[in-house]
Every structure is written in structure tokens, then in C-alpha cells.
Design brief:
Blueprint lengths: L13 H9 L5 E4 L4 H9 L5 E3 L1 H7 L10 H15 L3 E4 L7 H14 L3 E5 L18 H14 L4 E6 L1 H5 L1 H14 L3 E4 L5 H10 L5 E3 L11 H6 L4 E4 L2 H20 L12 H8 L1 H6 L11
Parallel strand pairs: 1-8, 2-3, 3-4, 4-5, 5-6, 7-8
Helix pairs in contact: 2-4, 4-5, 5-6, 6-8
Length: 299
């Protein structure tokens, strides 16, 4: 059903719905959705929550993931994904877009746009993808102040503190930072760019809080399944940029075919049909909301 009708209306705040999902014994899988159509497709496959990656947003705008995009631009993505899916959405909040007051503004803006949860990282600008080298970190106290500001500003938003310290400072420092962030008010911890199962197990053994694992492709973390992360002590797992990577490769091959063949005919087997696309976005359900619109029949 489209978002314009009451059947999909949610009266429970997204953050509370996110907490309810986490209260179950099993791990929560959060596939990345980089736009509203991807979100609708993920919902159709019975996912119960989604993730919005800063890298995916930036790339979809033709920009690198270096902390360039703004709060308002992120809110544009949040609104379309929350509307299209109706699912609780975890959003990448990068470094919080500034210091404590900026973080408070981000939290309220994300909540107003429909987000359920946010993660904030302890890098400084210009930030990098967590799986790249030479990341620069804020001090633990500076990051804890941001977490405390987020906690103070939030009405329902679930707050996850991400630490990138393992690569620069080692496991002991990352664990110490995680505890400081929990003391400041974080609901969960996201240890970024762990490189083997032993590291994942050690972190979960030493940090007694809900933990998020990042299963990104082409990074420092080897492939693990959701079940394997659960067995290692993790409560959430994201696949942040996968949907965008698959879509981007398909688009590249489409443009190559058009340039080479002057036609899209060879690409038809890879395309979603008009009927399937209309079903995914609820085209005909929207039509029924206005009886003056004649129902369209796909050719």
C-alpha cells in the first residue's frame, strides 16, 4: 500500500520499533538501501529494517565519501527511504557534521525526517571510509561529548557509537573508547574494520553492549554470514553499499551496450519489466486514491 493511505501509518516512533527488533534473540540484518526504489525492493523481500550508508549516498550523488554531503541532503534520502519502505532505518551520521551542537541538530533533523537510529564515528574531517588507511581520530573525550549531545537531543533515536580506533591504536584502545562512549550514553557500539574472526570475538567478549558488524565488500573484513556474526556476539549486521554497487555495475553495462549496439534490446532480460516496476512502487494503488485517474494497463 502506498504511504498516502492509513494502512501503513505507524504510530510507534521509529526508534522504538528499532529497539523492539533488537529485543529479539536473533541478529538484525540491515541491507543498505540507497534510494526509495531499493528500499521498496528490500521490503518486498521481507527485510524488517534498513541501513542508509554515507558512502552510498555520496556515490549516488557522484561524490566521494569524505564528509562532503550535508544534513539536509541526508534528510532527503531518509525521507524517501522511510516513505517508500515504512521500515525502521539506521542512518550513517558520519562525524556528526560538526561538534556537539551540530550533533544535536543532526539528531533532531534525522528524527523529523523519519530515521530510527544513527551511528556517529570518532574520525575527524575530512573523514574516510573506515576500511581505508591513514584515518585521523578525534580524542575519546571529544567523541564522548558528541555521544552525550546526541543522547541529550534524542527523543526516540537509537544511538550507535562507531570507533575506527582498531586500525590506528589497537584493540585495547578501541575497547577503552567503546566503554567511554557507552558511559556517555551510546545504546550500541560499531567497531569498524576488524580484519578476522578472532578480532570480532575478542571485541564482543570485552564490550558488553549491543554490537554492529559491517559486512562491506572490497574492504578489510573477510566475508561472514549473518549467522556467523551472531555466533561471534553481534546483534546487528549491515551490508552498506551492496545495492548501489550492483546497480552501478548494471548501469555501466547498459551504457556500454547502448554505445556499442545503439540499442537496449540485448539488455531486456536484465531489466525489471514495466509491470514489475509498477507493482514494486504501488503505481495502481496510488491511482485508486484518486478515482479521476484512469487505470493504466502496461503494454
Amino acid at each position: 500500500m502506498p504511504y498516502l493511505v492509513g494502512a501503513d501509518a505507524q504510530t510507534i516512533p521509529p526508534g522504538e520499533r528499532f529497539r523492539t527488533l533488537l529485543a529479539r534473540p536473533q541478529i538484525l540484518g540491515l541491507p543498505g538501501a540507497h534510494n526509495g526504489l531499493a528500499a521498496a525492493q528490500a521490503r518486498a523481500e521481507n527485510f524488517e529494517a534498513l541501513y542508509l550508508s554515507g558512502a552510498a549516498m555520496s556515490a549516488s550523488m557522484g561524490l566521494p565519501d569524505l564528509g562532503i554531503i550535508t544534513v539536509d541532503e541526508v534528510c532527503f534520502f531518509i525521507r524517501q527511504i522511510a516513505r517508500a519502505s515504512g521500515l525502521p532505518l539506521l542512518v550513517d551520521g558520519d562525524t556528526g557534521y560538526g561538534e556537539a551542537l551540530n550533533v544535536m541538530h543532526m539528531v533532531r533533523a534525522f528524527e523529523d525526517a523519519g530515521a530510527a537510529a544513527v551511528h556517529i564515528e570518532d574520525q575527524i574531517l575530512p573523514k574516510k571510509c573506515g576500511h581505508l588507511n591513514d584515518k585521523r581520530l578525534a580524542s575519546p573525550d571529544e567523541m564522548a561529548a558528541k555521544v552525550g549531545a546526541a543522547r541529550r537531543a534524542r527523543r526516540h533515536l537509537y544511538i550507535i557509537a562507531r570507533t575506527d580506533a582498531v586500525a590506528n591504536e589497537g584493540m585495547d584502545a578501541a575497547v577503552g573508547r567503546a566503554q567511554k562512549y557507552l558511559d556517555a550514553g551510546a545504546d550500541a557500539i560499531f567497531p569498524e574494520a576488524l580484519t578476522n574472526a578472532e578480532m570480532f570475538r575478542e571485541f564482543s567478549a570485552r564490550v558488553k553492549a549491543p554490537l554492529l558488524a559491517n559486512m562491506t565488500e572490497f574492504g578489510r573484513t573477510p566475508f561472514f554470514t549473518a549467522d556467523e556474526f551472531e555466533q561471534m556476539g553481534y546483534k546487528m549486521v549491515i551490508w552498506p553499499v551492496s545495492s548501489l554497487r550492483v546497480a552501478a555495475r548494471a548501469q555501466q553495462e547498459l551504457y556500454q551496450a547502448i554505445r556499442q549496439d545503439g540499442s537496449t534490446q540485448a539488455q531486456l532480460p536484465r531489466m525489471m519489466t514495466r509491470a514489475d516496476l509498477y507493482a514494486t512502487i504501488g503505481y495502481h494503488e496510488f491511482e485508486t486514491l484518486d478515482q479521476s485517474i484512469a487505470a493504466s494497463i502496461p503494454p
